[in-house]
Design a protein that fits this description.
Two copies of one chain form a homodimer.
Chain A (H helix, E strand, L loop, with lengths): L11 H8 L3 H9 L6 H14 L5 H8 L4 E7 L6 H13 L3 E7 L3 H13 L5 E4 L15 E3 L2 H8 L6 H14 L3 E6 L5 H16 L3 E7 L5 H9 L9 E4 L2 H13 L9 E3 L5 H5 L6 E3 L2 H17 L13 E3 L12
Parallel strand pairs in A: 1-2, 1-3, 3-4, 5-6, 5-7, 7-8
Antiparallel strand pairs in A: 9-10
Chain A binds a DNA duplex (30 and 30 nucleotides) through helix 2 and helix 4.
Amino acid sequence: MAGAAPKRPATIHQVASLAGVSHTTVSRYLQDKDSLKPKTRVKVEFAIKTLDYRPNLVARSMRTRKTNRLAIVLAAGPYFPGRLLAAAFETAHKAGYQVEVVSIEGGPKVRADRIDDLAESGQVEGILAISSIGRTGRRSRRVPIVESDIYDDHLRGKGELANAAEVRAIIQHLSELGHRTFLHVAGAQTHTSARNRKSVYLQTIEELGLRSFGVLGGDDWSAQSGYDAITSLPDDCGVTAVVAGNDGVALGVVRGALARGWQVPRDLSVFGWDDEEFGRFSSPSLSTVAIDREARGRYAIHHLLAEIQGDPLPEPPSRDINRLIFRESTAPPPTAQ
Amino acid sequence: MAGAAPKRPATIHQVASLAGVSHTTVSRYLQDKDSLKPKTRVKVEFAIKTLDYRPNLVARSMRTRKTNRLAIVLAAGPYFPGRLLAAAFETAHKAGYQVEVVSIEGGPKVRADRIDDLAESGQVEGILAISSIGRTGRRSRRVPIVESDIYDDHLRGKGELANAAEVRAIIQHLSELGHRTFLHVAGAQTHTSARNRKSVYLQTIEELGLRSFGVLGGDDWSAQSGYDAITSLPDDCGVTAVVAGNDGVALGVVRGALARGWQVPRDLSVFGWDDEEFGRFSSPSLSTVAIDREARGRYAIHHLLAEIQGDPLPEPPSRDINRLIFRESTAPPPTAQ
DNA sequence: TTATAAAAAGTGATCGATCCACTTCTGAGC
DNA sequence: GCTCAGAAGTGGATCGATCACTTTTTATAA
C-alpha cells in the first residue's frame, strides 16, 4: 500500500526550468500575477498547470515566518462549543487563516503549558483560548493569546459582570409576576459565565428584597443536575421560580417537578438559558435567554486578528445580543392566581 | 503595540554555540537524549534551558517532510458534529498528531477542490472528510483521504446499508405493539445516514407488509420539520407511529401532535435517533437509538492513521454500538387498547 | 539614434532544522 | 605503547520557498 509512486510534488524550480525563467520569476508570479510581462506570465501559467504545481506552504512559512494559522485551544470535555467554533472558523477563513484545534486534557496548569509550547513552536500566529487559562506564571509574548470570554474582561474593567443585565431582568420579570421565593440551579462553576450568573443571581435577590432557597447544582450543565436539585427540595420550601444554568438544566428541573407532582408553570416557573432548539419544542416550551454564540465566536477571532496585526481592538459585540424570550414555562405563582 | 521587543527565539545554532558543541549534536540530543555522552548532554541541556529554546517545528517539518498534522474537513453549516470531533481530536492527539479543522462553505465541488489544495500543500499528512465529498474527478494521491462514513462504505461492500439493522428493529418493535400505519420524517437527505434510514424504512415497511403514509421532511434535521410534518397530516391518515430522523425531529413531532390534540404515546408513538440528553428528560421521554459518536470519531482517525502508516485497516466498530432505547414515547396504538 | 529611467527578470543568500559522510575520541586487548 | 573498532561529534548539503540586490530589457524623451 505504501508502495505507491513516491513521486515528489513539483517545486518552484521545476516550474521555472520548464517555463524557461528563473525561480524568482515564478515566485513573483505567485505573489502578484500582474508584475509579469504577459508573455512570461503565460509561460509560467502553462508550466504550473502542466506540472500541477502547488506551492509548498511549509517552505513558504519557513521563509516568511508567517503560517497564516491560528490555534483554538479548548479543554477536552463534554461541552463542545460547536456554534461558537463554527462561526470562529468561518471568520478566520475569511481573513485567510487556517484554524488548528487543540483540545487539551488536564487542568489549567497543563493547559497553560501546552499553550506556551504552542506559542513558541512557531506554528501559529495567534491563540484563542476558549476555556479559561488562568493567570499562571510566565506567558509567552511571542504570539497574541486571547481568551474567549474577553468581553467579560471588558465588562469586568467597568466593574460589571457579563450576563448581569439578563439575570437581573429574569428575576425582575418573575418578581413582577408575583414570585417571591427563588432557586438557582447553577451551571458548571468552572465556567466564568456560570459563576457570573450565580453571583448576579445572589446579588439581585438581595437587592430586590426577595427570598432565595439557595443555589444547587454547579458541578456541570447536565439535565440530571436540574432533576436532582428539584427532587431534593423539601415540600415546604416555598420555591415557585427556578433560574436554571441553561436550557438543559431547565429541562431537568421541569421533569423533576413533574416527577413530584408539580406542574410547570402552574406550580413552578422555570427559566433557562441559551435558546436551544429543544426548548422551543418541549412541553412546556422553555422561557430562556437567546444568546448569539456566533457573534461571540466572530468577535473572538476579530479580536485575535486585531492583536496579531497590531490594529486597535474591535468594539465588543453589543450587549443586547442577549434577548429574553418568554415561553410557556413561566407564569404567575399559584398563590397569586 | 507591534513595537514589542522583536527578539527572535533561539535557534539550534545559538544553543550549540552556548553549549560549545556543534549544531548537529544538539539536533541529535533532540532526537535521542541518550546518544550523547553524559557530560555533553548536561552542557546541551543547560544551554537549552538558559535560552528557553524550543525547536521551530516549521523548519523541522520542512526538512523531514512530516508535519504530524491531520486535517478534518467539514461543510460549514448548522450541524456541527461536536462529539465525533471531540473524540477524533483526542485520538489524534494521543497518536501525536495535531488536528486542523477546515470548514468549507459551498457545494461538493468547492469542497473537493479545497481538499485537493490541502492535500497538495504539504501541510497535512492525512485528511478526514466528515461530509461526503463525492467522487469528483482527480483525487490527490499525495496524502490519504478518508471519509467519515467509511464504515457505511464497508457495509455497502457487503450489500447492506448502515443503520439498516436499527431501523428494521424499530419498525419490527412497533409492529409487534400493534402499529400498522407508519410515517417517516426524514433527516437532511444530503447526509448518507439520513438517506440510508429512509431507504431501509421503505424497504422494511414493504417486507413486513405494513402501510406507510409516506416520507415527509428531508430538508434538514430541524424540530420544525417534525412539527410541520405532523400538523400537515390529514385527520384520517391512520398513522399511529412515526419514525423520526433524529431526536430533534422527534421532539417536533411530539409537539405537533400535541398541537392537534393527539397525545403521545396514547394516540401516536414516536421514535427518535441519537439519544440526546433532552430526549431523556422531555415529556414524554423519547424512545431512541443510542449511537456511539465517539466510537465513530475514534474509528475514523484510526482508519486515517492506518492509511498514513500503511498499516492494515482497523476493523470497523462493532455494529451493535447502536442500541435501541425504549422510553415513554412509544406504546401500543389506540386501536389495540 | 541615443540617453535614461522604469519595469522585468535573474543571482545567490537565507530561514532553522535534519541527514549524510566524515573525523576525532575513547578504551580494550595485546 | 600501539592498534583498531565503535562511540561521539563535526561540517556542509539540503528541504522549497522568499528576499535583497544586481543585471537586463523595455519604453520614453531628447
